[in-house]
Specification:
Shape: elongated
CATH architecture: Up-down Bundle
Helix content: over 70%
Mean pLDDT: 96
Largest sheet: none
Number of domains: 1
Number of helices: 4
Order of helices and strands: HHHH
CATH class: Mainly Alpha
Strand content: under 5%
Number of strands: 0
Length: 123
């Protein structure tokens, strides 16, 4: 399959779907978490997908491409930290936490591999 834009990338699809799942789950977080955990986890999870889209548009410039992938990887790791807080605070059950943690491990792995071989992705 030919990749025409970022929407065709498996890593984008998984990051977008994970962010949407986090959004739905975070609706049930306590109100007192609104300006800390809820906002932070939504922001970082959305930023993973957004940075992948930006990276894809910067493929003409390998260093900019890799830099945006690195930003996305960092946001994915940050999301994992917020997920751990949500789990430890009792806002997520173990199965949901484990599934999301595994998704973000996969996302990070894909981003690292793309960054290691940018020539496969850049124009």
């Amino acid at each position: 399959m030919k990749i025409r834009d970022h929407n065709d990338l498996d890593v984008f699809k998984m990051s977008f779907d994970s962010a949407m799942k986090i959004y739905e789950l975070s609706k049930n977080f306590p109100k007192e978490e609104k300006y800390s955990l809820t906002d932070q986890i939504r922001r970082s999870s959305r930023s993973v997908a957004a940075n992948i889209a930006e990276a894809f548009r910067k493929r003409r410039y390998p260093k900019a491409f890799v830099s945006k992938l690195s930003d996305s990887e960092a946001e994915a790791a940050e999301t994992q930290v917020w997920l751990k807080f949500a789990y430890k605070c009792g806002y997520l059950n173990k199965k949901i936490f484990d599934d999301l943690e595994q998704n973000y491990d996969y996302i990070i792995g894909k981003l690292v591999n793309m960054g290691r071989k940018p020539e496969k992705w850049t124009l």
